[in-house]
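> call design_seq(struct)
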C-alpha cells in the first residue's frame, strides 16, 4: 500500500486560494469566513497493489466544515469522508475494515464487480469493535467508484455523517489515451454533498416525514467536505471525477461562464469519445468523469441549479411544496488556473474506449419493477404535517412491486453469465428515483420512452428513473440465496424505509 502527498497539495498548503466565499446561502456561522475561500481538500491517495493490505477505519471524529470550530462528524481513516483508494485491474487486494463506531455498520463497494460475499451489503454486518477482511479481485474496466455503509435501516444516517470514499479502478493506460492522470493536479476527485447545519456549525440529521418522502436535502452545499472551496489547476485540460454522495439531492451542473465541458466516463467506465455538454444532471450515487478546458487561463465557478427539476423534491401534489431553494444557481466551487502548475494535456482526446451497441437479443427474460413511495400511508395524518419520520425499523412505508424489503426474502433469481432487460417505473408518481443494482453493470436502453443522453450510453449501475427506464443488465458475479445482492432506490431515506429488493445469481 502506498500513500502520497501530491505536488499540488504541497503548493496549496504553502499558498492561498484566491476567491472569496459568498455569504448568501451559507449558514450563519460560515458567513464570517475570510474573503479568500478555502483550498479544495484533496483526499489522501492510497495506491493499492496486488496482495498489499489496505486498512479502512470507520470512526467518530471532529471536522471543520467552514470557518467555525471543529464539530462532531464521522470519517473513514480521516476526519470526514475517506481516502481515495486506487486499485488496478487484475490485482487482488485484501481489505481490513475496522468498525470503531458504537453501532453496527457495513462497507459496500459501490460499482465494484465482485461476488456478493464481499459486496458489503446489509448481510455483511460489522459489529462495533470488529474487523471485516474481504479480498477483492479486480476484474473490470478503468472507472470511478465509491464505498459507503449499507446497514439496513441506518444507511442514510451513516452516509450523511461522513462515511464515504472514492475508489478508482486503473488500467494504467490513461496517459496513452490522452487523459489527464496526475492525481490532485489535473485529475481531481470531486465529492458532492449537502448538509443542514445548526447554529454552532454541527451537521444536523433529524428527518421528518417530509424528508422521508422527498429525501433529506441540506441547505448548504459541500465539495470534498468543504464549503465553496477553490482549486488551483493547470491552464490546460483538467479531469474532474464527479461523485454525487448526497442522500437525495440531484445536482444540475454547469460552468458559470457557460463554457462547454466534456463527459468522458460514466459509472462503469469510459465512453467511446468525449461528449460535449453545457449542463450535466448527476443523481445520488452516480459518477461522471468530465474534462474542462482551462487553457484560456480564466477563473470559473462550478454551479448547480437551485432547483434541478429532476429530484425527489418535485413530488408536491399530495403533500404541498417540498423544501426547495429559489430559482437560479448555487455555487459549488471555484477553479483558478495557476501558472505554477504546468499543463500535461492541452487537447481533448478523440477516442477513448470500444463499446459495442447493447445486444438486446442476448436478454433471456424481461422483468418489471414498480417503485412504491407511498405504501403504508395510514400514518399520513401526523406525518404529512412535518412530524418526525418513523424509524426505519419501525415499519416500512415504501417498497418495490408492492412489497417492502425483507432480509429473508429473495425477490429475483438470475443466472450467472446471462443478461436480462429490467424495466423500472416510477409508478405514475411525479417523483424521480436513482435506481442502483449491486454487483452488475447495465446499459440504458431507454428513458421515458426515448433514447438516453449520449453521456449515458456507457456502462452504468445507477439510472435516474423519472417516469420509466429500460436497462440491459449483465449478471457475471455469483450471489447465493443466503448472501444476495441488492437493488434499490438510492435516495437513502427511501432505501432505509423499504424501497429495496434482493436478488440471487446462481
Amino acid at each position: 500500500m502506498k500513500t502520497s502527498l501530491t505536488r499540488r497539495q504541497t503548493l496549496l498548503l504553502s499558498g492561498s486560494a484566491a476567491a472569496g466565499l459568498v455569504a448568501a446561502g451559507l449558514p450563519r456561522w460560515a458567513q464570517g469566513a475570510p474573503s479568500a475561500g478555502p483550498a479544495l481538500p484533496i483526499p489522501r491517495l492510497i495506491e493499492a497493489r496486488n496482495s498489499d493490505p489496505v486498512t479502512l477505519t470507520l470512526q467518530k471524529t471532529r471536522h471543520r466544515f467552514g470557518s467555525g470550530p471543529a464539530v462532531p462528524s464521522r470519517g473513514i481513516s480521516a476526519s470526514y469522508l475517506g481516502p481515495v483508494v486506487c486499485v488496478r485491474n487484475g490485482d487482488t487486494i485484501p481489505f481490513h475494515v475496522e468498525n470503531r463506531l458504537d453501532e453496527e455498520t457495513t462497507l459496500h463497494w459501490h460499482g465494484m464487480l465482485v461476488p456478493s460475499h464481499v459486496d458489503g451489503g446489509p448481510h455483511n454486518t460489522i459489529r462495533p469493535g470488529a474487523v471485516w477482511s474481504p479480498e477483492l479481485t479486480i476484474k473490470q474496466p478503468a472507472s470511478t467508484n465509491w464505498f459507503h455503509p449499507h446497514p439496513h435501516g441506518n444507511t442514510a444516517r451513516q452516509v450523511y455523517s461522513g462515511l464515504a470514499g472514492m475508489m478508482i479502478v486503473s488500467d494504467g493506460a490513461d496517459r496513452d489515451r490522452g487523459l489527464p492522470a496526475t492525481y490532485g493536479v489535473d485529475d481531481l476527485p470531486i465529492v458532492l454533498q449537502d448538509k443542514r447545519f445548526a447554529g454552532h456549525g454541527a451537521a444536523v440529521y433529524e428527518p421528518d416525514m417530509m424528508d422521508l418522502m422527498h429525501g433529506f436535502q441540506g441547505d448548504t452545499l459541500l465539495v470534498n467536505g468543504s464549503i465553496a472551496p477553490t482549486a488551483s489547476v493547470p491552464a490546460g485540460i483538467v479531469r474532474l471525477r464527479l461523485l454525487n454522495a448526497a442522500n437525495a439531492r440531484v445536482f444540475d451542473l454547469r460552468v458559470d461562464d457557460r463554457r462547454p465541458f466534456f463527459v468522458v466516463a460514466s459509472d462503469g467506465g469510459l465512453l467511446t469519445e468525449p461528449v460535449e455538454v453545457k449542463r450535466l444532471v448527476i443523481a445520488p450515487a452516480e459518477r461522471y468523469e468530465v474534462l474542462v478546458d482551462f487553457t484560456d487561463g480564466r477563473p470559473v465557478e462550478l454551479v448547480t441549479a437551485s432547483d434541478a427539476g429532476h429530484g425527489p423534491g418535485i413530488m408536491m401534489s399530495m403533500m404541498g411544496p417540498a423544501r426547495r431553494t429559489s430559482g437560479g444557481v448555487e455555487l459549488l466551487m471555484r477553479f483558478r488556473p495557476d501558472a505554477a502548475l504546468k499543463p500535461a494535456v492541452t487537447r481533448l482526446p478523440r477516442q477513448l474506449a470500444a463499446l459495442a451497441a447493447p445486444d438486446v437479443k442476448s436478454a433471456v427474460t424481461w422483468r418489471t419493477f414498480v417503485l412504491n413511495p407511498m405504501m403504508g400511508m395510514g400514518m399520513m395524518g401526523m406525518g404529512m404535517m412535518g412530524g418526525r419520520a418513523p424509524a426505519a425499523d419501525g415499519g416500512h412505508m415504501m417498497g418495490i412491486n408492492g412489497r417492502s424489503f425483507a432480509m429473508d426474502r429473495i425477490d429475483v433469481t438470475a443466472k450467472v453469465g446471462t443478461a436480462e432487460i429490467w424495466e423500472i417505473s416510477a409508478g405514475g408518481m411525479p417523483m424521480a428515483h436513482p435506481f442502483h443494482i449491486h454487483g452488475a453493470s447495465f446499459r440504458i436502453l431507454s428513458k421515458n420512452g426515448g433514447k438516453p443522453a449520449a453521456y449515458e450510453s456507457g456502462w452504468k449501475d445507477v439510472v435516474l428513473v423519472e417516469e420509466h427506464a429500460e436497462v440491459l443488465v449483465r449478471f457475471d458475479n455469483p450471489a447465493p440465496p443466503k448472501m444476495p445482492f441488492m437493488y434499490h432506490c438510492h435516495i437513502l431515506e427511501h432505501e432505509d424505509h423499504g424501497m429495496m429488493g434482493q436478488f440471487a445469481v446462481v
